[in-house]
Amino acid sequence: MVNSPVEGTAAQLMDEHGVDSSVHRARQVTPALLREADLVLGMEKSHLLALARLAPEASGKLFLFDKWCEARDIPDPYRQQRPAFEHVYAMIDRGVRSWLPYLR
Q1: Distance of CA 100 to the CA centre of its chain
Q2: 66, 40, 68: which is closest to 52 by C-alpha?
Q3: What was the pLDDT predicted at 58?
Q4: pLDDT of 7-65, one tens digit each?
Q5: Choices 3.40.50.2300, 3.40.47.10, 3.40.50.720, 3.30.70.860: CATH for 28-103
Q6: What is the pTM of this model?
Q7: Alpha helix locations (H) across the chain?
Q8: What is the rounded radius of gyration, in angstroms, for the C-alpha atoms of the chain?
């Protein structure tokens, strides 16, 4: 949903972990956005396939967010209870930490 803020439960959880999501607004991905990016991390393998179809020239910079862990899809907890958000937050946190050595 373009220009929407972070979902309420996600925003609350992020705030509890010291992550400020207040300025984030959703954007629609475009071929230009993909071309401009240095790295694009997709939460699900199907997302990466869709992005590669949208901008084949960006394929070399498309990676699964969980690539360095178990290479699993990270599910979308939207419209689920808080425990689902907590589970996904833990997966994202682990994924972020796994990418850090490659981004420095």
Answers
A1: 15
A2: 40
A3: 97
A4: 999 999 999 999 999 999 999 999 999 999 999 999 999 999 999 999 999 999 999 99
A5: 3.40.50.2300
A6: 0.90
A7: 8-16, 31-36, 45-54, 82-103
A8: 14
